[in-house]
């Protein structure tokens, strides 16, 4: 369970871009984070994984207060937060398998993937995940031989390799066609359900968010202006 309480963020010499954001995400719930450009969505996501430090407020993941951890401790905790990116962020010249295994290392420099001998258990886990995302036949291909949708599936498997307690997903379908976008959203939805994972998906495609999330949080000017079911958003519009 993720709990955010009174989160604010002020960049240097600038007005507040998060103005006291509070919400909880229980296990298995997928939140679609929507709002116009500049609303503070990326800032919120980056505060949660502590790529940037919030100015005030609390972020709890289960019983850990992420917002007060030292950067060393946070590096450890970040292993429990799976990230899925718009542009996949794969290492092009590594194989699909190696990209998935690299999730095990968190966000270390990729060449460490070559140097590490992965235990058999982790290799089996990676095979299992490749099977789950439908890429078992592509395990030995180079990442740059895959289509966009396949690359995002690698990104999903890599995030799961961390055995995360939370998924943070940044515009996962922005580079994909509508049909592939729906397939990727459905896969994320199924996996969160199967694993009881809470997820926050930063997504500008509102119809897609409404179709594949349980709950919509609308940010505007750094404040939560909507928090409810997709159906409730539909009625408000
Ligand atoms: P969104 O993801 O909703 O488009 P952002 O979180 O990227 O919104 O940005 C929210 C506001 O914070 C914007 O006004 C943006 O210009 C500002 N901002 C984002 N990053 C920085 C930064 N590193 N320094 C100063 N201002 C920033
Ligand atoms: P996004 O696609 O997330 O909205 P942006 O174009 O807002 O991306 O931001 C891209 C990068 O520029 C981010 O790293 C963000 O922190 C930084 N940035 C955005 N706005 C500002 C700003 N006003 N001052 C300094 N850095 C900014």
UniProtKB/TrEMBL annotation:
<protein>
    <submittedName>
        <fullName>Phosphonate ABC transporter ATP-binding protein</fullName>
    </submittedName>
</protein>
<keyword id="KW-1003">Cell membrane</keyword>
<dbReference type="InterPro" id="IPR027417">
    <property type="entry name" value="P-loop_NTPase"/>
</dbReference>
<keyword id="KW-1278">Translocase</keyword>
<feature type="domain" description="ABC transporter">
    <location>
        <begin position="2"/>
        <end position="237"/>
    </location>
</feature>
<dbReference type="InterPro" id="IPR003439">
    <property type="entry name" value="ABC_transporter-like_ATP-bd"/>
</dbReference>
<keyword id="KW-0547">Nucleotide-binding</keyword>
<keyword id="KW-0067">ATP-binding</keyword>
<dbReference type="Pfam" id="PF00005">
    <property type="entry name" value="ABC_tran"/>
</dbReference>
<dbReference type="InterPro" id="IPR017871">
    <property type="entry name" value="ABC_transporter-like_CS"/>
</dbReference>
<dbReference type="InterPro" id="IPR012693">
    <property type="entry name" value="ABC_transpr_PhnC"/>
</dbReference>
<keyword id="KW-0813">Transport</keyword>
<dbReference type="InterPro" id="IPR003593">
    <property type="entry name" value="AAA+_ATPase"/>
</dbReference>
<dbReference type="InterPro" id="IPR050086">
    <property type="entry name" value="MetN_ABC_transporter-like"/>
</dbReference>
<keyword id="KW-0472">Membrane</keyword>
<dbReference type="GO" id="GO:0005524">
    <property type="term" value="F:ATP binding"/>
</dbReference>
């Amino acid at each position: 369970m993720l709990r955010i309480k009174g989160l604010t963020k002020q960049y240097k010499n600038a007005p507040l871009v998060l103005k006291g954001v509070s919400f909880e995400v229980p296990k298995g719930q997928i939140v679609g984070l929507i709002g116009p450009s500049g609303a503070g969505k990326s800032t919120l996501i980056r505060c949660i994984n502590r790529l940037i430090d919030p100015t005030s407020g609390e972020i709890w993941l289960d019983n850990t207060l992420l917002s007060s951890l030292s950067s060393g401790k946070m590096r450890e905790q970040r292993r429990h937060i799976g990230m899925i990116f718009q542009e996949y962020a794969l290492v092009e010249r590594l194989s699909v398998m190696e990209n998935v295994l690299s999730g095990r290392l968190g966000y270390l420099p990729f060449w460490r993937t070559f140097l590490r001998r992965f235990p058999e258990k982790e290799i089996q886990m990676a095979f299992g995940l490749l099977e789950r995302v439908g890429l078992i036949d592509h395990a030995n291909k180079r990442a740059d031989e895959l289509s966009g949708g396949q690359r995002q599936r690698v990104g999903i498997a890599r995030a799961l390799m961390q055995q995360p307690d939370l998924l943070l997903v940044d515009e996962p379908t922005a580079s994909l066609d509508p049909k592939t976008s729906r397939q990727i959203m459905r896969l994320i939805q199924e996996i969160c359900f199967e694993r009881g994972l809470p997820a926050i998906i930063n997504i500008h495609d509102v119809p897609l968010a409404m179709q594949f999330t349980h709950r919509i949080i609308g940010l505007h000017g750094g404040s939560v202006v909507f928090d409810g079911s997709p159906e409730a958003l539909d009625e408000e519009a």
